[in-house]
Amino acid sequence: MQHEDRLRIWIEQGNVNISLLFFQNYKSLGIEDLDAMLIMHMTAFKSVNNEFPTPTDFSSRMNLTENEISMILQRLMQRGFLRIEQSQDANGVLHEKFSLQPLWVRLTDKISIIVEESEQKTQKEAEGEIYKLFEQEFGRFLSPMESESISMWLDVDGHSVEIIRAALKEAVLAEKMSLRYIDRILFEWKKKNVKTLAQVESTSKKFRSVGNRPVQQERVETVKRVPFYNWLEERD
Fold this sequence. Notes:
This protein has 236 residues and is mainly α. Helix content is 58%, strand content 5%. It has a two-stranded antiparallel sheet with strand order 1-2. It is elongated.
């Protein structure tokens, strides 16, 4: 089930506080203030099992005449925010109720667009930062070919910024600062379906560990080395 579908169901079932979502976004949907107030009263009526309040019901709570209430209801239906649904009970009696499902669809679509645009902006900013990070680690500007290689990792190979950053970290630890080496790391990870930082850590730690062997008490001092995994070596 898609995120927006779940949100619509939660709203309809009352599991999401509609007040905040609605008040933050109703203006961008082109809903007028009085119309928004009537919608909130409609949800309040529904909470006490009155799913088809009359203009008289609304007028008793708002400083509007019944005729003004009817005009707002008509406007909401004409603009596709409200509809009237019919159902039959066990005795065959026909019942009508207001449904704000069309509004929840429009609202969740609007929120989904906002979230998607925000995520795209964040992604673009992260992609811009990865080029700067490479230049920082390389200690120089990237060549056009190197920039193109990083672009292909992102756009063609589908590697995330986090995975590319992790591959760069592996190259730094191995003291092998070349795009060929990093490309090989990414190739190996893709072959092993490594897509998250947790999977990167799990894959790498078996090849890179800190030695913890006991050292004999001798006058000659030894230096502990951190082995690294050579990603350029062909392995099964």
